[in-house]
Design goal:
Length: about 180
């Protein structure tokens, strides 16, 4: 595992295409633990689920998104599974290997400010997911523990490191969700 400096600050990193990023983030790392501010502009890569290197807690400050997790963890997002889910919030019928958790910003309204449980989600490092970001984007505050393993994408049941994944599949231009 790569050794991190005790303190790091990364300012306004643009992820995705340089001129058309899906995410801009500010990262503060202290003794391996990190705090990140994310400005989500578009969804992240939805071709395959990914995990993270550490457990995390994400708080949506403004905006909203859908955290998409696999129904069958050994299948890809577009693989059909035995159940078809209807998601009221999306207004679509899915026969895909996905289940949705809607998360909204605590500063969207007084209602969400006083009922923050829909604004916070916790993820274990091994949990697979991707995010669907609706038009308008989202701002999040994320706390991440010390890295436990290397993160990656799950392609046909096998974990691929990011460089291999992007070399094979390329960087996609993320999708806007209404």
């Amino acid at each position: 595992m790569t050794k991190f400096k005790k303190f790091q600050v990364r300012w306004a990193e643009r992820l995705g295409y340089k001129d058309y990023p899906y995410l801009i983030r500010w990262t503060f790392i202290f003794f391996g633990y990190s705090m990140r501010i994310h400005h989500w502009i578009k969804s992240d890569d939805n071709r395959f689920f990914h995990d993270h290197s550490a457990d995390l807690l994400s708080i949506v400050l403004k905006g909203e998104y859908w955290n998409v997790k696999p129904i069958d963890k050994d299948k890809n997002p577009n693989d059909l599974v035995n159940i078809i889910r209807y998601e009221k919030d999306l207004g679509e019928v899915f026969g895909r290997n996905e289940e949705f958790c809607f998360v909204e910003g605590i500063f969207n309204s007084w209602r969400t400010f006083f009922h923050m449980k829909k604004s916070i989600w916790f993820s274990k490092a091994e949990d697979r997911h991707y995010l669907k970001i609706p038009k308008g984007g989202a701002w999040t505050l994320m706390f991440e523990g010390k890295p436990r393993h290397k993160w990656g994408f799950y392609v046909n049941g096998h974990k691929w490191r990011p460089l291999r994944y992007f070399h094979k599949y390329g960087i996609i231009q993320s999708i806007d969700y209404q």
